[in-house]
């Protein structure tokens, strides 16, 4: 019975329905206006609609008819306008709003200005999942929307937003029955949130030996410092990196929502469990493209690995194998904690506040500095390899550590090191000290803050200056050592940076050359 | 003249064990070649590590490790053998009922516990006496098929053991060291005089006529440096740095019983003072640089 006639049809009536489009993590509210007039039969969709929105016409027509809802008769001239007209529209999320607008226009009804609609339609009238519902819901609430109709699949995600009634929709018909005939539209009741915290994927207790590297991980976790691990193949660099999320405090609710927004835009959110306290750990392969790493895409950029690692850990193994241009693109995010990407469709910003853990071999063959196996590289090749790693990226990595292979016997022994929760407790204490003192972690201390906020004992300061003069440290390297020393002091529970803290910090560099 | 059971493949003549030998623990020891590992009582970290690893590798290959239960190289050799569940014999310069030095009492107890033996040519109750130790060194040579000297300065007691071994027609071998190190002078002199050079346990096993396949080349440093730390404390750090054997900060911290952050800080301070240098993830001591005071 598609297109069953006889429905009330009053030419000249217009309806307006609210929906939304995403631009990165920002939203553009869209008003879907439908006008049905008598005239040459036509169905216009105007308002700078891109391809996927133009196709909405066909989906909406089938969905409305197959839901047993009236479709304007033969002699109706229908115009759907997507306002504001100057913004390019993309994506299928407006389907539901267009269909609802058409049904309302025919019946002369109207939607409340506090209602908004989001969802793709299938030809049989089912409402399908769309990406970015969490982001859309947050934006709409700011626009005064109080009730949001979303695909049932995405209801849990939308319900994370406070002050918003979320109506899960499985079929178009449910929505129109409610709006036109007053059928009930039950609001989604958020299920009890499961515990946010889960055990980390790898525990430090599984690491054999490697005391110095374990300590470096603890310092990195405590101060939020980026970390470089340099060592031969099989020295457990990946294992060490994987332990880092478990040393960090679990995500706060706000941080978890930040991260969920990125995942929402990507459509990677688990509908059954949109929020998790687990810090992300992302380990892209070195062949990754720049767009894959920092974000990108044809018209409007999508988030990349660095945004997936937001509030977590980005692990770049075999750092020297990455395309240098790709690594260059990390500079802005490393400094600002966000990335701005401009494409033909506009410029978007994504959060990208992550801890970088990079791993590398010390030389092309990998065995430079190994106590047992001899390095086969020409000395010039080793120098060139280490030089290639230096530069702007390395300049932003506060902690640089050499790791060695664990001897085979050690692997069969029961490891005796501390477990991650034990270390995490110290990390959390040190982080609290930093928050109380300066409101952020030590890794973000500026030069002025270092001078003003961080007490340093005179002899410690002298040691730092003496080393710096002797090794020709750059200003950046000088500050790096100071920041790390501050973290070592915080782990120690000291207000003043002591000489030992400075000395320890100066030891976190790779190679014997001044890490300039 | 007694011969080893031919089934083991060892075919070296060894005179009968002296009649007046007193023993505690398992005696006679299991058949198999006996390798003495002797050396300085105050070895460098390198010498200590060589003794421990060499003893482990030899014991793992079925040899009995003989030494004198002294501090330093002797203790490291016993520890190395025990670490792999091997058999080790301590030849004492006192009565078998007296352990000297007393700091090795725990080591002596473990040797007995794990199927080794304490033996002595002196009557029970003999206290440590200066004159007895050179005689003890002869006994070490007499009880062994080969004597390996690991670090001996000029005039070291270990050289007496080597001399005795020559007199008794035992093989003498020596571990080379740094030419800067006074502790290696004695060893280098032995090599110059024709002692076999020991690079790894295979060299020793070859002299014993064993056809054991194993053991990589070069000798691997031991994982634990399991010998008890003499003292500890800050000043001890430099003493535990070797000029030839790179040591990781973690191993140093364990050995000295110091917190790791402190060890890291001390090492950087030594670097600053030009007394230590990094080598990969490890540190070595800088010594005798030309042009340096």
Task: Report the radius of gyration of chain A as a whole number of Å.
Answer: 29 Å
Tally the structural domains of chain A: 3
Q: What is the CATH domain class of the largest domain in chain A?
A: Alpha Beta
CATH architecture of the largest domain in chain B: 3-Layer(aba) Sandwich
Structural class of chain A: alpha/beta
In the CATH hierarchy, the architecture of the largest domain in chain A is 3-Layer(aba) Sandwich
Full CATH superfamily name of the largest domain in chain A:
P-loop containing nucleotide triphosphate hydrolases
Segments of chain B where pLDDT lies below 50 for 5+ residues? Answer: 1-12, 225-232, 289-293
CATH class bucket of the largest domain in chain B:
Alpha Beta
- As an assembly, this protein is heterodimer
Strand residues, percent of chain A: 15-25%
Arithmetic mean of pLDDT of chain B: 83
N-to-C series of helices and strands of chain B: EEEEHEHEHEHEHEHEHHHHEE
The helical percent of chain B reads 25-40%
Structural overview:
The complex is a heterodimer of chains A (516) and B (293). Chain A has 516 residues and is of the alpha/beta class. Chain A has three domains: 14-181, 2-Layer Sandwich (Ribosomal Protein S5, domain 2), CATH 3.30.230.10; 204-210 and 220-424, Rossmann fold (3-Layer(aba) Sandwich); 445-516, Helicase, Ruva Protein, domain 3 (Orthogonal Bundle). Helices cover 37% and strands 18% of the residues of chain A. Chain B has two domains: 2-207, Rossmann fold (3-Layer(aba) Sandwich), CATH 3.40.50.450; 236-285, Orthogonal Bundle (Arc Repressor Mutant, subunit A). Chains A and B meet through helix 7, helix 18, helix 19 and helix 20 of A and helix 9, helix 10 and strand 11 of B.
